[in-house]
Structures are given as C-alpha cells and as structure tokens.
Amino acid sequence: MTIEPWTTQLYASLPRGMRPRLVVMATAAAYLGVSKGMFKLMVMSGSMPAAKFIGESRLWDLRQIDEAVDRLPIDYESEFDWEGAD
Predict the structure, then answer these.
(1) Residue 14 and residue 65: Cα distance in Å, rounded?
(2) pTM of the prediction?
(3) Fewest Cβ atoms nearer than 10 Å: which of 45, 57, 67, 86?
(4) 61 assigned to some structural domain
(5) Quick check: is 12 in a domain?
(6) pLDDT in tens, 40-70
(7) Residue 72: helix, strand or coil by DSSP?
(8) Cβ distance 61 to 49 under 8 Å?
(9) Does 76 reside within a domain?
C-alpha cells in the first residue's frame, strides 16, 4: 500500500503527536489495516463514510472513520484460530 509522497511531507509538517483530520484514501485504508480495494468496498457498502471534497481532492475524515469503526459488528461466535493469529 503506497502513500503518496506529498501527503507524507504534509503529515510530517504537523506538530509531534498531532494527526491529520482529513486523509487520502491510501492513508484511510492503512489506518484501518485494509487494502484500498477493501476500503472502497466498505465505503460503497456504507460501513465507512464517503469522502469530503476540498477542491478536487477527495479526503476522508478520521473522526467519521473512528465512529464508523465503533459501529462495526463484533463477531463473538466465529471459529477463529486465535493461536495462529498475528
């Protein structure tokens, strides 16, 4: 997953400990730990928020992403192999 170099430079200019409020899709996907393709599917299904536009830039609000993550279902009953999990 590649994050555009210009966004890395912008994020590096923030004071230490401050995260950006709006991020590009690659960063939003990385924030969730999913691919850009999966993030797009999540946006299309409504489980993640749509982008905001600033000029021609499409940006995602991390606060809205955090709220969407809190609404995701919790799977208590799956037969997940916890011993092999990363």
Answers:
(1) 20
(2) 0.75
(3) 86
(4) yes
(5) no
(6) 999 999 999 999 999 999 999 999 999 999 9
(7) coil
(8) yes
(9) no
pLDDT in tens, 1-48: 455 555 566 677 878 888 889 999 999 999 999 999 999 999 999 999
Which stretch of DSSP H or E encloses residue 61? Answer: strand 57-61
Which of 45, 36, 50, 35 minimizes the C-alpha distance to 72?
45
- Beta strand pairing status for 52-54 and 22-23? unpaired
- Amino acid residing at 77: E
Residue 14 lies in a domain: no
Identify the bridge partners of residue 53 per DSSP, sorted by sequence position: 58
Count of structural domains within the chain: 1
SS3 23: strand
CB 24 within 8 A of CB 14: no
By residue range, what is the domain housing residue 58? 19-70
